[in-house]
Amino acid sequence: MLNLNSNDLYDLNEALKVENLTNDDYEEICKRLKRKPNRTELGMFGVMWSEHCCYRNSKPLLSQFPTKGKNVLVGPGENAGVIDVGNNQKLVFKIESHNHPSAIEPFQGAATGVGGILRDIFTMGARPIAVLNSLRFGNLDKSSNVDLLRGVVSGIAHYGNCVGVPTVGGEIDFDDSYSGNPLVNVMALGLLETNQIVCSGAKHVGSPVLYVGNTTGRDGVGGASFASSELTTSSLDDRPAVQVGDPFIEKSLIEACLDAFKTGDVIAAQDMGAAGLTCSSAEMAANGNLGISIDLDLVPSREENMTSYQYLLSESQERMLFVVKEEKINSLIEKFNKWGLNANVIGEVIKAKEVIISHKNKIVAQIPTSALSDDTPVNFHNSINKPPEYLLNKWKWKENKLPEINEQKILSLKEKKSFSYSQILLKLLSNPSIASKRWVYKQYDSQVQANTVFKPGESDAALIRLREQTEKNKNKVFSGVAASVDCNSRWVSLDPFRGTIAAVAESSRNVSCVGAEPLAITNNLNFSSPETQTGYWQLASSCKGISEACKALETPVTGGNVSLYNESKNKDNEITPINPTPVIGMVGKIDNVDKAISSGWKNLNDQIWVIGSYNSETTIAASSYLEYFHGEITGRPPKIDLLDEKFCQSFIRNAILNNFVVSAHDISDGGLAVALAECCILSSKGASIEIDKDLKRDDNLLFAEGGSRIIFSVDRIKEKKWLDYLKSNQIITHSSVYIKKIGFVSNETLDIKIQENIICNIGVEELTEKFNNSISSYF
């Protein structure tokens, strides 16, 4: 019998507001229960029917993603995706967001974001081997954004460094749209250590349900609902919805869980992340097509007099829920106690497909599992069929609207004075979105576990050595996995479809630039409210872009995260949405990490080449140059030819593996000039470059973006063999892809000529100073 005591006599309107539920939701809940819910049950529905847990606004759009492929072992639906990376090794990976918690408690919000994604990885039976992050903040000229950046970076560093997982790469961007609503997306990778992948579906009626890990407190109560609503000036009142993590307990939990999984005595496992005990119990039951009963009196707690609502909605960190073999209970409990962790039997698997919760000897919740988990509501929205008028107007922008070039100088529309191209390049390099993120990644331990091949910032993608080796010609050969997170949110804001295709392509290109083959993606869809026509159109267009790009590049989607309602409301009730930001996390493999290359030049007099697509336009529209130098965010991003993109990446990978290419770097933010400067800075070497006029403006040749382009250097002593390789390769007959020699590696300066005219001449030391000191100057 349900416990209908006085605590469950609640103000319905106030309760619905707290749980972020509508009157229609309430009617549907009553229909499914065949009665009115009590206050505890309403809270359970609130978190499970939130966007964060059930994707009620995005589920129809996500269904179009390609999710199967030759390497995919586990796709969407489990805690993380799993792919085969060869040598009997399986890579587990996923990306998650912790945006709203980080906005009001940046340190703990970011720290627990790391802890949460790591649990998704080791819940599957994998040892976490790397973390990457994708961060977005408002411009640093506002002290509040500086404080947010400092707190988020400290939180990521604290948790990752303490738990012993290297932070190996990522990206950071700055834009006013993120002021007050930063994005904190964390991606984690792990290697499977068990014979079988550990899944979440409960099995075998009567099997015990084991709670392991940290104690339960009141922190994080309602966190999933909080993460699924917009930020307002009163959001600081929601600080209790932010969890508090302990990385040292997490480290113990990793070791204890992996030890337990290896026994084969754990039937199913689920992280207690968003929605805590409610989500973990409901999803385990639904995934196993059974039910589950839980007694809250058996749950280890750190606070007295907690209510059933608080137990069920707490998001206290470092907790797991297992279904285990009954005869192995004692041995499993001993394993966790050995690590100083709680391990308590709190319930059992039942035949009835219900989640039944008891507290103080009374049933406080009894809900069909389908109502909480797999049969959740879907919100259908009226999407506009064409781009909004404001974008159509922006797409009309043409390069001829820029000032004429006069004596190799151009007038900045932003600063109303003329600059030389050398000055423009230095200004771009010092912009925080392009500049070195050294101040950030120096706070991360990137070398722990001793498998990180390149330090952060050295290469286009992170590369992790896999310790299980093969023998080739009596030499030990280590394979590796590469990973990259990417999104040009400026492009996405100006064209969500094209911009998202570009994000998938760039992430794949970065993996190819180290010599690895892209295999699959995880994604984090950060958008504003889907309840506006423009907001939903952006989300729908972006999802279409992911689907098209992943099909063409053969990189299926294995899972991810949707974070909506990323918008802030000021005291005047004005809403500022973020730029749509679909972050793409790409993973790939390389059979021999000794073949992998980084971005910086290697040897003096090595040849510098560029490969790209004639079919993919290069343009100043939507470029960093147009925004940071001229102060305009307009134009239409160029369309990427995905077949050419795939060919260019394949060509580069093969040239790397054949030992011709010794450095490679994709051309992205800032165009060719910035990419060349970055290679010079990374190597402390110069470059002598000559570019054909090609009927384009000089600033287009230097700073245009697009074109699926990669600059690379070829070993100087292999020039003849390289030319023979080109002749024998199908690149010669591929009419829509070009490959050109544009210069050579030199000593101390970056010299760029256009048609014999030197238009840029900067010492590498000056480039390095501008690039390295931009962000640190704010601290």
Explain what this protein looks like in three dimensions.
The protein has 779 residues and is an alpha+beta fold. Among the domains are: 266 residues, PurM-like, N-terminal domain (60s Ribosomal Protein L30, Chain: A); 224 residues, Phosphoribosyl-aminoimidazole Synthetase, Chain A, domain 2 (Alpha-Beta Complex), CATH 3.90.650. 33% of the residues lie in helices and 26% in strands. It contains 26 helices and 31 strands. The chain has a 7-stranded mixed beta sheet with strand order 8-10-7-11-9-12-13. Strands 25-28-23-29-26-30-31 form a 7-stranded mixed beta sheet. The chain is globular and about 85 Å long. About 1% of the residues have low confidence.
